[in-house]
Write a structure and sequence with these properties.
Layout: H1 3-19, E1 22-23, H2 33-43, H3 61-73, E2 77-81, H4 84-99, E3 103-105, H5 111-115, H6 119-124, E4 127-129, H7 140-144, E5 152-156, H8 169-181, E6 185-190, H9 197-200, H10 204-209, E7 213-217, E8 228-232, H11 234-246, H12 255-268, H13 272-292, E9 299-301, E10 309-314, H14 318-332, E11 334-335, E12 341-343, E13 348-354, H15 364-379
Parallel strand pairs: 1-11, 3-4, 3-5, 5-6, 6-7
Antiparallel strand pairs: 2-8, 7-8, 9-10, 10-13, 12-13
Helix pairs in contact: 1-14, 3-12, 4-11, 13-15, 14-15
Family: Belongs to the threonine aldolase family.
Domain Aromatic amino acid beta-eliminating lyase/threonine aldolase: 55-287
GO molecular function: L-allo-threonine aldolase activity
Length: 380
């Protein structure tokens, strides 16, 4: 498929999703440029005084966002970064210097290993090792008994590519303790940390307190335009600011991203427990729908979901599933699934389902009916 055809397909999908009257999640990034600008201009005054001067190199609204993040997570300080890729490289580079060990233990499905083109080793001189290859975070025994030293244990919460999975609170605390027994520091890749509180039954400060440093994203769960934050001890964050400049992250002005992040903290963060609870109902109804439709094999994973996101697996080509999903949206105004992707073993495809505010209106019966319609399109 050429770039042009992919752009056309993306425009088609966005149009179908935008016109859908019923959808499980509606992200602001799927809106138009004008739509996003208008929404930001209309809403930002509710979270920040817009008569204040615009930010310059991280002061003003950006500094205020950093203070709010630190307060929300219960850490001494926080620093805004344009991307999570940069934030985590800086964090782990700082820890490597402090521990004297540039080896990072993490899961092979974690974001830096799968989605960042080897940035840890190529850009930051870090080396990675894997305490486990199972589709879950490592256990305390796997960390404790790993056969070589590492300076930092990095835990992605939740582990997205394994199905947005989380350990239990007891398992997480045991893993952290096992790393500390090895004199390693612990860093949380918390791109989606915001929605983990319900699963753990703990507050965000209680979760963040387990780690030596935490990265959070603003656009994944909080629906901001972009941006991330690194939170932790004041001395670490001060050092991270220096490295942020060296990595090219000292951006002249960032007020649109900062304002949208503030809106996410104010509006989306309090609603995430609602989304997590409803995702469990949606996932169960999807499974009922596939069973009732006589689909030969399917998987809704994990069951029940640990957060407001989960995977669905079906034994059909990804292209066929994506086309059926787009056609359903175009012809019925209902978006049940979005894009599907081929995965191993051959013959299976997977999609990610997110339930947010738009999805709260769906009843279990409506989910089952949408699944029946979707499966009918596959058979047709």
């Amino acid at each position: 498929m050429t770039d042009t055809s992919e752009q056309e397909q993306r425009r088609r999908r966005l149009t179908a999703w935008g016109k859908s009257e019923r959808i499980l999640s509606r992200a602001s990034a799927e809106s138009t440029v004008g739509g996003q600008l208008a929404a930001l201009a209309a809403d930002a005054g509710a979270v920040y005084e817009l008569s204040e001067p615009a930010d310059v190199y991280g002061d003003g609204v950006v500094a205020e966002l950093e203070r709010r993040v630190a307060r929300t997570l219960g850490t001494e300080a926080a620093a805004f970064f344009p991307t999570g890729t940069m934030a985590q490289q800086v964090a782990l580079r700082c820890w490597a210097g402090r521990t004297g060990n540039a080896t990072v233990a993490l899961h092979p499905l974690s974001h830096p290993e799968v989605h960042e083109s080897g940035a840890f080793s190529v850009v930051s001189g870090l080396r990675t090792v894997h305490p486990t290859h199972a589709a879950r975070l490592p256990t305390a025994d796997e960390v404790r008994d790993f056969d070589e030293p590492f300076g930092t244990l990095m835990l992605e919460l939740p582990l997205r590519d394994a199905g947005f999975v989380l350990p239990s609170w007891e398992e997480l605390t045991a893993v952290v303790e096992s790393a500390r027994e090895r004199d390693a520091v612990v860093h949380f890749d918390g791109a989606r940390l915001w929605e983990c509180a319900s699963h753990f039954g703990r507050t965000l400060p209680e979760i963040a307190e387990l780690a030596d440093s935490v990265y959070v994203s603003f656009y994944k769960s909080l629906d901001a335009m972009s941006g991330a934050a690194l939170a932790g001890p004041a001395s670490l964050i001060a050092e991270a600011r220096t490295w942020r400049h060296r990595y090219g992250g000292q951006v002249f002005q960032q007020f649109p991203a900062a304002l949208s992040a503030m809106l996410g903290l104010e509006r989306e963060l309090p609603r995430l427990p609602e989304y997590v609870a409803h995702a469990k109902e949606v996932a169960a109804a999807m499974a009922d729908g596939f069973r009732a439709a006589g689909v030969p094999w399917f998987r809704v994973h994990p069951a029940p979901p640990h957060t407001h996101q989960f995977q669905v697996w079906l034994p059909y080509p990804a292209e066929l599933l994506t086309e059926a999903a787009v056609c359903q949206a175009e012809q019925t105004g209902v978006t049940l699934f979005r894009r599907w992707f081929s995965d191993t073993p051959p013959g299976l495809a997977v999609t990610e389902v997110t339930v947010s505010s738009a999805g709260l209106a769906w009843t279990a019966d409506e989910v089952r009916a949408a699944v029946a319609d979707f499966v009918g399109r596959l058979r047709a």
